[in-house]
Amino acid sequence: MSTVTHVPVLLNEIIEALAVQPGGRYIDCTIGAGGHAAAILEQSSPGGQLLGIDADPEAIQIAKSRLGAYKDSILIINENFVNLQAICLKYDFLPVNGILFDLGLSSLQLDSRRGFSFQHDAPLDMRLNPGQEITAADIINTFSENELAQLIKTYGEDEYSRRIARHIVRKRPIKTTLQLTRVIEQTIGSRRGKIHPATKTFQALRITVNQELENLKTALRQAINLLGFEGRLVVISYHSLEDRIVKQLMQQEAKDCICPPTTPVCVCGHTACLRLVNKKAITPSSREVQLNPRSRSAKLRVAERITTQEEYYQTAEKLCYAMNVKAGGWRRPAQLKKLRVTYSALQSN
Ligand SMILES: C[S@@+](CC[C@H](N)C(=O)[O-])C[C@H]1O[C@@H](n2cnc3c(N)ncnc32)[C@H](O)[C@@H]1O
Question: Would the pLDDT of 218 be above 70?
Answer without folding.
Answer: yes
